[in-house]
Amino acid sequence: MDSGGTTIVILSNKTILKKIKEQELIIEPLKQSQLQSASIDLRIGNHFLTIEIFHTSFFTGQTSCL
Predict the structure, then answer these.
(1) Angle CA(27)–CA(19)–CA(39) in degrees, nearest 5?
(2) What is the predicted pLDDT for the residue at 52?
(3) How far apart are CA 40 and CA 32, in angstroms?
(4) For residue 29, cis peptide bond before it (omega within 30 degrees of 0)
């Protein structure tokens, strides 16, 4: 359970496929390559943004109290 008292469930790929077959879960379009061991890789579009890795950390280690 999480801190809110909700039970967290992780589905296996076999269970995901079963739920898709039984139409309890609908993902369209779905390619076999998107199915992982306990997840599905979702596609939200044909374009994406990549961010270059910065060599300078943005974390200063300082905290502030407001």
Answers:
(1) 60
(2) 73
(3) 9
(4) yes
Tokens for 10, please give them: 């992780």
- Residue 40's nearest CA partner among 27, 21, 52 is 27
pLDDT of residue 61: 58
How many domains does the chain divide into?
1
Residue 26 sits in which domain range?
Answer: 1-66
Mean of the per-residue pLDDT values for the chain? 79
pTM for this one? 0.54
- Amino acid at the residue 17: L
CA–CA gap between residue 19 and residue 25 (Å, rounded): 5
Got the DSSP string for 1-61?
--TTSPPP----HHHHHHHHHTTSS--SS--GGGB-SS-B-----S-----PPPSS-S--S
